[in-house]
């Protein structure tokens, strides 16, 4: 896949790819259509990332004396679409403040399994981190634990040392819902529960654009900016996980997504190959109040467009 190729190329080649992905620029900002599978920041095992090539990209777009471009916000590695870069630190700080104070209107497209009921609404459920433990380095079999994960597995001492409290090496962090209410099993009434002190408020507006082949095309507007918010709200809040989201397709384990027969047929896939499906989440539009409001739009990547066509999800009227 292209994402793996981008991980291996020389930084100059990656910068050239990003230059070709430029959709808008003025004296203050540069806007790119972020490719799939490319991390914004570096980390263990990451050879190439957007942050590392910003100085090269600035020179390619302007001249050899150009100041490095600056990140203004983040997109997950697997998310494609509108990404704003600033030409100066001052502009970057202004744009970060606009994001922080929720003055930036963000619109995403996602292909989901199933369709939401109702077809339009707002999901307002807090989100919190949890640990999901896998018995293997890949996610074939795994489980969650309601207690803290310790390594080695033994009853925790009364005053554990920092070394004892290390997470299990195969534990991974995942986001999940932390609702403020639940239904009483006795009488079905809504009961307020104690708020999780680590949970973050999360609000997502959604709207159904098209549905076919046991899938839907959804328009999403995250009002807040919690990590993996759209993915968690769709999967656990609405029961409609994003196509290709193998991290949030099961409530209590990490495992490849299971697709309906009609979806497999339309995609010409067998279930054993479903694990290779990319995440179908795209940052489609971003409205930025920088002086006058700038409306920035990016087309979905080719794989997303092909999936829409195969599933007969028509967006011609959008």
UniProtKB/TrEMBL annotation:
Which Pfam family is one of this chain's hits?
Answer: PseudoU_synth_2
Entry-linked InterPro entries: PsdUridine_synth_cat_dom_sf, PsdUridine_synth_RluA-like_CS, PsdUridine_synth_RsuA/RluA, RluA_PseudoU_synthase
Write the record's keywords in alphabetical order, separated by commas: Isomerase
Tell whether Repressor is among the UniProt keywords.
Answer: no
BP term (GO), one = pseudouridine synthesis
Molecular function, one GO term: RNA binding
**Does Ribonucleoprotein count among this protein's keywords?**
no
Reaction(s) catalyzed by this protein?
Answer: uridine in 5S rRNA = pseudouridine in 5S rRNA; a uridine in tRNA = a pseudouridine in tRNA; a uridine in mRNA = a pseudouridine in mRNA
Where does the Pseudouridine synthase RsuA/RluA-like domain start and stop, copy by copy? 29-235
Family assignment?
Answer: Belongs to the pseudouridine synthase RluA family.
Q: Mind telling me what this protein is named?
A: Pseudouridylate synthase RPUSD4, mitochondrial
- Organism this protein belongs to: Mycteria americana (Wood stork)
